Every structure is written in C-alpha cells, then in structure tokens.
Amino acid sequence: MRFGANYTPTQGWFHHWLDFDLDAVRADLDSIAGLGLDHIRVFPLWPLFQPNRTLIRPRAVEQLVQLADAAAERGLDVTVDGLQGHLSSFDFLPAWTQTWHRRNIFTDPDVLAGQEEYLRTLAAALADRPHFLGMTLGNEINQFSDGPHPDPDRITGAQAAAWLERMLAACERGAPGRTHLHAEYDVTWYRDGHPFTPAQAARLGAVTAVHSWVFNGTAQRHGPTGIATEHHAEYLIELTKAWAVDPHRSVWLQEVGAPAPHIPADRAAHFTEATITNALDCPDLWGVTWWCSHDVARSLADFPELEYGLGLLGNDRTVKPAGRAIAALAKEWRGREHRPAVRSTALVVDAGGSEDAPRRSVCAPGGPVFEAWTELTAQDVRPTFVLAELASDDAHLTSRGITEVCTPEEAHQA
User: Fold this and answer.
1) How far apart are CA 355 and CA 81, in angstroms?
2) Domain count, the chain
3) Residue 144: inside a domain, yes or no?
4) Considering the entire predicted model, what is its pTM?
C-alpha cells in the first residue's frame, strides 16, 4: 500500500519553476519524507516547460530531473503530471494555444504533435530513474473540454478517447513499461454528456485514478461527519469498478483533501483518518496521494479560500494534525499486506449504456445510486457496483465475487 502527497512547493507554489531553488525543494522533500510517505506527484507548468510549440526548454527538463533525483535520495518515488493544465482554480495553457493562436487542445493536429513530443520528452528524461513511477497526462485536463469552464474546447467522446490513447502512447514511447495514466475530476463520473467518460477512465491507462473532493455537494448535503462525506473516496473507488473490464484493475486515490469550511479545521485530522481508513477497505487499491503536501502561502493572492490550508504541513513545513494522522496510517501499514474482503453485494448502476453513460448523473451526490450506496454503507453492507447491462451476467459477477445484486430502489426499501 502506497502513501504519498501531491507536492506543493513552499517557495512560490508551482511558480517555483520560474526561480527554481533546489535547496528549498530538498527542505520540502525532507519534511514530506519525515511523515513516512513513499512517493510524491510532481507538477511541471506546461507554458514554462514548452513556451513555444517547438521549444521544450532543456533547463526546465533538467530541473525536473533534479527534483526527481532529490526525491529519490529521500526514499520518495516520483510520478509526474505533464500538461498543467489546471491547478487550484488557475489555468496554465501556453500562448500557442490561446487568443490569436487559439486552437482546440484536444483535436488540432499541430497542438497534438506538440503535446506528444512534450510528454515523450518528460518521460524519456526520467526513464532511466528506477524511482520514476510514470506519467499522468495532466491534472484534470478534462475541465477544458466542457462546462462549467468559461471557455471550453468542445469535443465528442470519441475525440476524447482518441486524445487519451495518443497521449498515453507518447508517454509509453518515452518511458516504456512505467505506470502511465490519465486523471480527471469527478464530472467524468457525475455529469451527463461530459466527453470524458467512466469507461475511458476505467479502461485506458495502467491504472484508474480518482480525485475525491467533498465540496462537490457531498459535504453540503450530508455534513462534515456524514457517512457519505467520510466514505466519498471509497464510493468513487468502488464506482470505477462497474466500468472496468479487468475485475482486479488497480485504482489510485490520486487526490483527496480536507477542504475548509466544508471540513472544519478542527475536524481535518479525523476526516483524514476516516477517509483513508474507509478507502483501505477497497480491494485493488494502489495507494493514496493526499492533496497536498504544504499549505499555500498567504502572500499569494486570488486563490479560493479553501486552497490555502489543504496541506499536511504548513507553509513553514510544520506538521499539521492531518499530517500526523496520515503519518500514523503510513507507519501502521508499512510492510503490511493489503487484502480486504471481497465486496459481495453490488448496487446496480443504470447510466444508459456502458460506453457514453448518458445518464451518469444518477451516480452524483443526491442521485439515486449515490444515496442508495450511502444507505447500504450505513448498514455495514460494504457495497460495490455493477452496470445494469452486466447485472445478470453470471460470469462477470463470479469474476468479481459478487453474490447479491440490488437496485437503488430495493436498497431504499431495505
């Protein structure tokens, strides 16, 4: 079982690439390693690394490798997100995709070629490092394809799939055999008509990634200590399995945090412990990567208020209560086999078809699937999910150890 953190530099946040200070990075990494974590997720800023479509800055790539090597010296494995993309409410897109050069970042042939070469270059630069885990295409880049983004690059589901397959192949060419994946925010699972689909998330790439944020309506509806709130990450992990072809496909809880005021500061440690403990009850969980390592400095302006205090450590690198909670869990699980019991009861998900899932909002907070799962969880049932079209497929159910199937309506009646 892996425990890690999304690395948010204390010096300049992700703008630290502009004034890269390896000593400051090393101090940050010392504080992360001090929690007993084993990996970090790292975020280059795309416009800084590839400011022109045919210019990938060698110095920037070298600094990324220096950061990765510094992490390895402290026993931390590294996974790298390529296309940033979107971070903490800010968009980072290169000028050659915007305004006078406006081109669809998912379909324009020149943009695609530039993205391919960029991802391949980053992967290749780290390919000989044994502590390099692999590439994630970008952080929640699906938000650029649809509302509520104020200026989306609209695409179809087929175009999203083609983009994902092409970019994953570029990462594989750069660093063959590593864990390359893609990661979207939860509209993939919850928003009808969104072009990035649950099937893509659960079938493309080496593992399935989920980002669990309870400010999506869960905490507002169920409160900071509600079952749905403290089990939301677990819910998303299990929901992915309805669409997976491999019954034992690994799922990575790649982002999860305790956002105030939805989770009050004095409840953050409890929420951290509860969320991770519940997630660990999911079979085939690869690991947990908390958002984020360090708080954002208050000297930086215009972040949403909740973004400033999400760190396991303060901006001064002091350990916060949530950091102590995850450190205790990491220590408890170090070297311990992760083998939770099979989840034998499956809740039926009728999203209108497995490929496009046109009615996937049934899974969103407040939807019948979400609320039925919450009710069953309150009864200690430990439910998983099965698509409606597979609910009578004995071979599929047997492969997953499912012995009982119920609909949301039946769950409510129970």
Assistant:
1) 26
2) 2
3) yes
4) 0.97
